[in-house]
Amino acid sequence: MSTPENxxxxxxxxxxxxxxxxxxxxxxxxxxxxxxxxxxxPVAELKAQLRRLPGEWYVIHSYAGYENKVKTNLETRVQNLxxxxxIFQVEVPTEEVTEIKxxxxxxxxxxxxxGYILVRMELNDESWSAVRNTPGVTGFVGMTSRPSPLSxxxxxxxxxxxxxxxxxxxxxxxxxxxxxxxxAAAAASNLVEVDFExxxxxxxxxxxxxxxxxxxxEVNTEQRKVKVLVSIFGRETPVELGFNQVExx
Length: 249
What we know:
Elements: H1 4-37, H2 42-52, E1 56-62, H3 67-80, E2 87-91, E3 94-101, E4 104-111, E5 116-121, H4 125-132, E6 137-140, H5 152-159, H6 162-176, H7 181-189, E7 193-194, E8 201-204, E9 213-220, E10 225-232, E11 235-242, E12 246-248
Helix pairs in contact: 2-5, 6-7
């Protein structure tokens, strides 16, 4: 026969179990929120990193197509002339784009600033001379009596091009909507800059207008379509086509 004391203790044990279960459930429910909170904005992160780095960023001219060669030349001169205390970093900004070749998408790296190179340096007579006399360098951008450095915003624009910014924005929006970091990253990774521009000449590769030249009037990256103007009987006719139905000339 149970005592009154035992009868009183039993509900207390049940209450403790219920409280423990509720606590575990609360932790599990909070986990996705924690994952979302851990999402890092790469744009803000890079901006903060750029502010911490020594020196300022300058732009130098080079011959188009020789940017990587000039980068190598300058890095070699920095070592040979022992000016690493003044010249810290040399970059040829690139971005990943998708080009349509023979109707098939192909990912390629495209230079953001053809004919230009970014240099992070402390400007003085020694560093200026090392850069200016590097084979392939034709001069500094913004040079009057003294080259003008880029703002952090400008550097960010070149080092994190449009495609990366759009990915960051998509990930941030997905996180704000309550998606996990993994889901946001997966969604963002599907965004790729497509190398089509308004006014560009292309050839229609499919459909009733195949083989005809056309001019792009609109680009819809979300639907992966372009609107082109095709000359039919002497008149320009708008036609909507998929990215895989046109090819750059």
